[in-house]
Amino acid sequence: MATGTPADRTDHQAADREVRAFVDAVPGATRRRDAEALLTMFGRITGEPARLWYSSIIGFGQYHYKYESGREGDAGAAGFSPRKASMSIYFPDGLGAYTDELARLGPHKAALSCLYVTNLDKVDLDVLEQMVTTSYRAVTAGEYFGHRARESEGGRADPHRPE
């Protein structure tokens, strides 16, 4: 049975079509296959529908961020983007807290808050799922992250409560 208002259902249907069209247009069979696998994984982890953010990021749920500079906004609480060179998987809480998991993951590259994987068949999907689950829970815990992921290089940075 459908939930929400008719407008909510229409918005979700439009978002679903937009995400579906984006994934169907991803070049390369491996990248498209990996996008499908992550759609399923992220949906299961978050319980949220997929939504296209910034025209090329598939996000689930959302969180609010605010930097000390005053810049603030909303972004997907969990998300990925099938890029040409690799799959970019986003960790808004930074990758610094995942040192042990990254050592067990398999072939990847990492930056402050982005994990780059060229083929999901070559990584440990249980480890990836654990990382995404932990990140999503941290980011949606009712707090926003007012820091840059760089601050998490030595471990998980402290979230800040809105003032």
Summed up, what is this model?
It comes from Cryobacterium zongtaii. It holds the Pfam family DUF1801. The protein is an alpha+beta fold.
List keywords for this structure.
163 residues, alpha+beta, Aspartate Aminotransferase, domain 1, six-stranded antiparallel sheet, 8 strands, globular, disordered N terminus
Per CATH, the architecture is: Alpha-Beta Complex
Largest sheet: 6 strands, antiparallel
Strand content: 15-25%
The gyration radius over C-alpha positions equals: 16 Å
Number of helices: 4
Q: How do the helices and strands line up, and which of them pair or pack?
A:
Elements (H helix, E strand, L loop, with lengths): L5 H19 L4 H18 L3 E4 L3 E4 L2 E4 L5 E4 L2 E5 L4 E4 L8 H7 L3 E2 L3 E4 L7 H15 L24
Antiparallel strand pairs: 1-2, 2-5, 3-4, 5-6, 6-8, 7-8
Helix pairs in contact: 2-4, 3-4
Describe this structure in words.
Residues 31-134 form the YdhG-like domain. This is YdhG-like domain-containing protein. The protein has 163 residues and is an alpha+beta fold. The protein has a single domain, classed as Aspartate Aminotransferase, domain 1 (Alpha-Beta Complex), CATH 3.90.1150. The chain has four helices and eight strands. It has helices at residues 6-24, 29-46, 99-105, 125-139; strands at 50-53, 57-60, 63-66, 72-75, 78-82, 87-90, 109-110, 114-117. The strands form two sheets. Strands 1-2-5-6-8-7 form a six-stranded antiparallel β-sheet. Helix 2 packs across helix 4. The longest helix has 19 residues, at 6-24. The protein is globular and about 40 Å long. 27% of the residues are buried. Mean pLDDT is 85; it is low at 1-6.
